[in-house]
Amino acid sequence: MAPRPLGPLVLALGGAAAVLGSVLFILWKTYFGRGRERRWDRGEAWWGAEAARLPEWDEWDPEDEEDEEPALEELEQREVLVLGLDGAGKSTFLRVLSGKPPLEGHIPTWGFNSVRLPTKDFEVDLLEIGGSQNLRFYWKEFVNEVDVLVFVVDSADRLRLPWARQELHKLLDKDPDLPVVVVANKQDLSEAMSMVELQRELGLQAVDNQREVFLLAASIAPAGPSFEEPGTVHIWKLLLELLS
Ligand SMILES: Nc1nc2c(ncn2[C@@H]2O[C@H](COP(=O)(O)OP(=O)(O)OP(=O)(O)O)[C@@H](O)[C@H]2O)c(=O)[nH]1
Ligand SMILES: [Mg+2]
């Protein structure tokens, strides 16, 4: 049977989706690309950069104006894409890394969400794209543009693990050289799958040995106060190693 030609509606929808994906990407690039910096309050982020100090009025010296402005050293940028099914904990990850407390309950990200974190040697831009079904279509548009992919999985969501696996493998196939950090989140929950189980169910043993794919256990925002498993610090340390 001859292949059916694509109807005009399908073509129009496909075109609109591609345009929206590009627009999202351009917005992100524009937001960060202009070097629009967020000023971190001391103590807001635990690696906090020193805030710039402006001179007081009585310290102002007109001769200073003639001095050439010192060139601001531009820090290099590193880009990290944060994906995973809705409710896995992506926004919580970004919040906790920024030194903010997790929000109560799940507030879905209807588009994208990003933070820029300064380090000694470079700045790290983390971009989350919402995990709801209609947004997953755009994920693949971004994977070739970043330095590392973080894929967050809800370790207690057994029912949807096959979906997570499918999406993860689509991304792995899209860019075979991209380092990937799979975060097995919500390990604090009693129904959470073990790391051995997750490695098997996510099909990670089958991934090429040469490839940089890591599976890390995490409890980014543990439900109980007494839980002592690692939060985000070990993920951040691995990211810094991969980005260096
Ligand atoms: N028990 C437990 N809950 C967590 C953990 N991390 C995040 N959560 C909760 O999981 C829910 C969803 O978290 P979000 O960060 O909003 O999920 P998301 O991946 O950004 O979801 P979308 O934006 O819809 O794609 C929130 O209620 C979080 O508090 C964890 O380590 N343990
Ligand atoms: Mg979110």
From TrEMBL:
Mg(2+) binds at S91, T109. GTP binds at G84, L85, D86, G87, A88, G89, K90, S91, G131, N185, K186, Q187, D188. This is ARF like GTPase 10. Keywords: GTP-binding, Magnesium, Membrane, Metal-binding, Nucleotide-binding, Transmembrane, Transmembrane helix. One of its GO terms (molecular function) is metal ion binding. The keyword Ribonucleoprotein does not apply. SUPFAM superfamilies: P-loop containing nucleoside triphosphate hydrolases. Pfam families: Arf. The chain crosses the membrane at residues 6-28. Gene3D superfamilies: P-loop containing nucleotide triphosphate hydrolases. It comes from Macaca fascicularis (Crab-eating macaque). InterPro entries: ARL10, P-loop_NTPase, Small_GTPase_ARF/SAR.
